[in-house]
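Lay summary. Proteins are chains of building blocks that fold into shapes, and those shapes determine what they do. In this project we predict the shape from the chain. Here is one chain we studied, written as its sequence of building blocks.
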Amino acid sequence: MPLVTMKQVMADSLKRALDPKEDPKERYAVGAFNFSTIPEMVGIVEGARSKSSPVILMLSLGALKYIGSLELVADTAKGIARQYPEVPIVLHLDHATDLEMIKHAVVVGFTNVMIDASQEPYEVNIEKSKEIADFAHKHSPRGLDGCSVEAELGMLAGHEDNIVVSEEDAGKAYTDPKLVPRFVDETGIDALAVAIGTAHGFYKAAPKIRFDLLKEIREVTGVPLVLHGGTGVPEEDFKKCVEMGMSKINVGTGLKMVYTDAVREAIRTLPETEYDPRKIVGPGRKAIADEIAQKSVLFNCAGKSEAILKSLY
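And here is the predicted shape, written in a compact code that computers can read:
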């Protein structure tokens, strides 16, 4: 089956998030996971399949530089989607700042793109985000519903490829709920990444998530909300974010850790005469699959694939 858009895959999650009568325990978020290699991409999808979960394959600018081509990533993801038709798969370009690169990703077949102009003044953020939303909704190879758009309001601490934000600056730049309605309405974006206390990379201490801000933001907009900086967030905080209406959760650094640890262990335990890369990298792919399976349960999206697919086809 073809790749799906983030808007399509999160429609049910958003409906539950906006319904005041919905049992918070029945709400769920879709996991978005970074990759740098094909084995990681396959491991992510296999983990999602094992729990009948939708999943978002997430390409960072650093991974793009390593892989070398948006076309290569898009064609690979399309092939994986055909191989795993029972899994709703989104291909997402994360934290991109170059407008022409983002437009190129739309044209070659990415089904979600993120324009990150969060470090720009508010008016410039609106202008750039609107430009990408207008382009993506009109120029995807699959037409109007072929590519959805995520933007960010506020800034997360930490390092994400070409975006570096100190903890001090991030503390001054939580998402302001009062700015959200105009931002969403004028840009036409499909999802909003919010800054409520998480950060990219590993935490020195458990993050202090501003659930009060999340509540206010959820009340003033009807688009899906996105939590970046998922590595190291306590499980109870994840569950609370989901119950309060978060529809997408990004995880990157934690996957690198489990993948690398598994590969290192394979190298340590295999005989020195073993040169088959599959036996070295294979455990890393398996470790990622196991991690995605666990996160699918934690985000409460396990078992949601069939209903999502039925709503689309």
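What the prediction tells us: The radius of gyration is 18 Å.
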